[in-house]
Fold these 2 entries.
Entry 1:
Amino acid sequence: MINNISKEDAMAILKEDAGKIKNLVNKQRDTLCLLSCPAFEEVVDTQLFGFSREVNFVVRCALIEEKAGKKLIEDLESDLNGHFHAEF
């Protein structure tokens, strides 16, 4: 278990998790259902909510600035919204 985590480590972990969400959404988009499928939308919403809670925790631990946390969430939302617009 990590006792001390640097701000850089925290940011790297968050970016890695955002990448995992993007990969999950891409795989589901490609193999499971259309983007208009309610189940697909639920997965995206759930993943974004979970990621926002993770970012909030890291911000509250003072490992990253609130502005940086908001940017991570906005960037992920923007990337995922790009998937929707690319399909329609």
Note: The CA atoms of residues 76 and 82 lie 10 Å apart.
Entry 2:
Amino acid sequence: MAETIGTTTAVLIVGAGPTGLTLACELARRGVPFRLIEASDGPQPGSRGKGIQPRTLELLDDLGIADRVIAHGLMAMPMRSTAPDGRVTLGGGEPESLRDRPDIPYTTSLITPEWRIEEALRLRLAELGGEVEFGTSLTGFGQSDDGVSAVVVKGGETETVTAGRLVGCDGGHSVVRKEAGIAFEGETREEVRMIVADVALDGLDRDAWHMWRHADGLVSLCPLPSTDLFQYQALIAPGQDPELSLANMQTILDRRSGRSGRSGRTGIRLHEPEWSSLWRANIRLVDRYREGRVFLAGDAAHIHSPAGGQGMNTGMQDAHNLGWKLAAVEMGAPRALLDTYEAERRPVAAGVLALSNERLRQTLEQNGMSVQRDTSTTQLGVGYRGSALARDDRGGRDDRDDRDDRDETCLLRAGDRAPDATGLTTAEGGRRLFDLTRGGRFTLLDFGATDATDATSAASETSPLAAVAPPPSGLRTLRVGGQPTGPDDVADTAGHLAAAYGAGERTLVLIRPDGHVGLISDAGDVSAVREWLTAVG
């Protein structure tokens, strides 16, 4: 095997699924050198994870590709469940509690094939100057205090890549995780299996996700928008045939759908699968997300059942959290910032495992899925209260001094998802908050901490905020007040912004690059903002 001259980069990303691609986009838009390698020879086929949750749509919005992704999907797909006695239950609508909310731009999940998500992310990565190195696999690595030395193979040639850090986004069978010696704790439930396939068919409308409950188990057909295919799912109990053949899949559908005639055959005729897989219930979580300069994200760190549609979303949000922190440290921020990645994301993954386990239990007990959408799966409630990066003075005192003294009954606290707000007026016209925060930088909302008589802009040399040094990734200060005159002036015309943030006349809110609140000071403490930004670089 030939050996090529080694190369050096800041970050080596292993695995170019949704998690690895999201991380690459985060680094690319901040100008951090990286390489993204993928062992497969090209993009992976198959619908696989097909549900994008509202919080992940906000992530894609921040990357500038939400509209591109939505164009190939369907929001709030109707769900139609048929019981063994023929009774039909309809659902899938927008949760009532999220309807017409000015702080939530996306209220329901989007159904679209996973390969469409990867396609959109690859295109965005190319626009940012990056690329995927397909057919390139990691065979091993070593690390020291100074970096990681990784051996990769492509086309029969080996190469040694020296990287500042290595991130394993290489799935449940992660080479990075195994080489790093990180335990993947949990269980494999061999008795819980499911056939998943992408098929064309005749005899069924594409207006809804169709499900049939049966004593043998659930079978469902979900139309895949922007294609002529359906995703076929059938639970396979012990003793049932798991063969991934057209004949077996058709037999299962005929028996469980209850649509068969005297011949025993349904009116729905499946075509040869274009992609298929036998899923087994693996429920595992790593004991740590980091070993020195090596990090894990996505399925390499946590795997669980697809019930609830959480897996791909959690992995992409891992990358969204890690990306800006890696970039900040690369630009000179304290290395301790990277410790907050595991501290913030591992509890989220543990919660996702608990949720998906409960949904799986319900599916197995009821031989069917619920058609009622609720807020538990939207991931809009994911937050980092109690994180080392969450500071506020709500509840009577600054939680830097006594975090346990915080008033947790407040609607919004540091660490929470930063809410959107409609009805804003800028010098350029009407906007929503997410239009102004998009782009992966810090945003400071100034509701009146600076005196309007001092300057027409919070960036003026006479403003107290002028002494706040912006981090390398950038800081935009939006001054909320009266008639906007400058590019960073905002009028809260409808009052939605102040309501969403519980803002008083001196409130300062610092929003992190990943769309979470880093700091809130209702006292208008500019020094607290300065200290927070200094701590993260």
Note: The CA atoms of residues 424 and 493 lie 6 Å apart.
